[in-house]
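> forwarded from #structure-qc
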């Protein structure tokens, strides 16, 4: 199986949305959508990741020599069938299996429209089960460590992730309803 980084996942999602797109327009979209928050990517990293996706044979490109003006001719990128299959598989994996508070889950959400609704629901229900198990594990750990007898700051270490996970479960319920 091909491994892809968060940056590559984000780029595949963007390329998949368009029949073809230039590196310059990819950079514009990343800035417009605020994807830098989730993928921690700069301009040089974008071009390096596009190169990696090409080497992995998930995207192809052609040089658009119709450009007028200064600078190099732009490369226009296009996702291929293998790239689409890998992208869809990685989105489903990320929706179902990412740890709580994982940026890859957020990136998968941005590409949820690229998979079928049934697959998305199955993945989200799997994630919801995982999150419930995580909350239960935290509660047991909290009690085994002394529960309310712990100093307040130690209690906060257990309470904070539980509250966040419980909110994420509510969020997932909303997503499933929307689908």
């Amino acid at each position: 199986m091909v491994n892809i980084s968060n940056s590559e996942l984000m780029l595949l999602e963007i390329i998949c949305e368009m029949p073809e797109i230039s590196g310059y327009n990819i950079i514009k979209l990343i800035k417009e959508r605020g994807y830098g928050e989730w993928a921690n990517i700069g301009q040089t990293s974008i071009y390096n990741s596009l190169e990696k996706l090409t080497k992995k044979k998930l995207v192809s490109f052609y040089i658009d020599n119709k450009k007028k003006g200064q600078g190099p001719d732009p490369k226009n990128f296009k996702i291929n069938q293998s790239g689409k299959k890998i992208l869809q598989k990685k989105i489903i994996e990320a929706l179902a299996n990412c740890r709580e508070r994982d940026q890859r889950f957020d990136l998968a959400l941005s590409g949820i429209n690229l998979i079928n609704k049934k697959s998305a629901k199955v993945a989200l229900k799997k994630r919801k089960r995982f999150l419930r198990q995580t909350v239960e594990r935290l509660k047991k750990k909290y009690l085994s460590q002394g529960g309310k007898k712990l100093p307040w700051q130690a209690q906060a270490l257990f309470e904070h992730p539980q509250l966040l996970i419980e909110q994420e479960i509510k969020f997932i319920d909303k997503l499933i309803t929307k689908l």
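QC bot note: The first helix runs from residue 6 to 17. Residues 24 and 74 are 8 Å apart (CA to CA).
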